[in-house]
Amino acid sequence: MYIDIYFTDLLPVDRDDVEDALESIDALEVVGAGGGDLGGNIDLEVVSPISRDEALRMVADVLQQFDLAAISYLRPSDTGERINIVDLLQ
User: Fold this and answer.
1) Domain ranges of the chain
2) Cα separation of 52 and 65, whole Å?
3) How far apart are the first and last CA of the chain?
4) How far is the C-alpha of 37 from the C-alpha of 24, rounded, in Å?
5) Which of 31, 33, 29, 22 is nearest to 66 (CA)?
6) DSSP letters along 16-47, please?
7) At what angle do helices 52-65 and 15-23 cross, to 10 degrees?
8) Is the pTM higher than 0.85?
9) Which tens digits make up the pLDDT trace of 12-60?
10) The architecture CATH gives domain 2-88
C-alpha cells in the first residue's frame, strides 16, 4: 500500500526533517516528494505487513510531532479517500 501525504500550506519546518522521521519507522519508506507555492507532498510505501490503520496512525503521529496536522491530509492507495490528520488523532 502507498500513502500520499499532502500539505495544504507551506511547511513551517524543513520537509527533509519530516521525511527523515518517517523513514525512521521501519514499516515506511519515502518514495517521492514535491513542493510548490501552495504546499507539497510526501509519498510513502508501506513495506512491512502492518495493518492499514496502524500505518495511517504512525504517519499521523509523525505529522503531529511536527505540528503539521492542521495543514495535512492523507490519501491511501487502497481507497483513494482523503483522510484528515486531525480526524485520525481524535
Assistant:
1) 2-88
2) 20
3) 23
4) 28
5) 22
6) HHHHHHHHTSTTEEEEEEEEETTEEEEEEEE-
7) 140
8) yes
9) 999 999 999 999 999 999 999 998 888 899 999 999 999 999 999 999 9
10) 2-Layer Sandwich (3.30)
